[in-house]
Amino acid sequence: MSDPLRIVILTLFPEMFSGVFSTSILGRACEQGLLDVRLMDIRPYSASKHKNTDDYPFGGGAGMVMMAQPVMDAMKAAEAVCPDARRIYLGPRGKRLDTALARELAAEKELILLCGHYEGMDQRVLDTCVDEEISIGDYILTGGEPAAMVLTDCVSRFVPGVLGSSDSPEEESFSDGLLEYPQYTRPRDLNGLSVPEVLLNGDHAKIRSWRRKESLRATLRFRPDLLEKASLTEEDRKMLREIEKEMSDSCSSES
Ligand code: 4GY
Fold first, then answer.
1. Contact residues of ligand 1, CB 6 A cut-off
2. pTM for the whole thing?
3. CB 111, CB 105: distance < 8 Å
4. pLDDT digit string (tens) for 138-156?
5. Nearest-angstrom CA–CA distance, 135 and 151
């Protein structure tokens, strides 16, 4: 079997991750040896008597800054475990995480994820000990830990075997730049709420075409901006014209 994707997470709060890597799909991936996630507590690397990891900002101001020394020493220990890792800091200044970046990271052998806390990290750590900063979105968290969970989760989906053999990440939202089609499961009748007839008849060509059209419809409705970048076939464009016609028809019949 191929080597697992090894991810070392440097954090002051390793206990925040309990559950994330022991449950459900990521839990199974770790058990199966597809993922090798190691949590490294930064605090023991503090050289100070009381194992401090934060200090007042030079120049004054509110809040505390994560000290360079414990993080730099913890990073050295992580590099000993993962000598070839891309070293990533989770922060809002970084490149935005998306499907393309997740796929790229899943192809690495090793990743080191550094989680900041408090008001931020001593800049000298970012200047000398990380290769890149990645952001999961334009908002500020209280720490990088939830972002490290998000990154690990969405990268793991592209590690072969994590979703099982029949489930392909390439069939899901965003892999072709479109949103997902609606899904249904039993019962066929839920207190009068039915399931689209086409899904019950076993005509797989028709089902495939219905799903494609519903993906296009959902994307047009909720994220029309995505349609500009999606790779669309002539058939897709035909379906989009049908959807637009259906939309204008249902609009004019209401008035
Ligand atoms: N957004 N994307 C993010 C974040 C918290 C700097 C210490 C984000 O990835 N990480 O908000 N991280 C950090 C931000 C100060 C806490």
1. 90-92, 116-117, 120, 135-137, 139-141, 143-144, 147
2. 0.94
3. yes
4. 999 999 999 999 999 999 9
5. 9
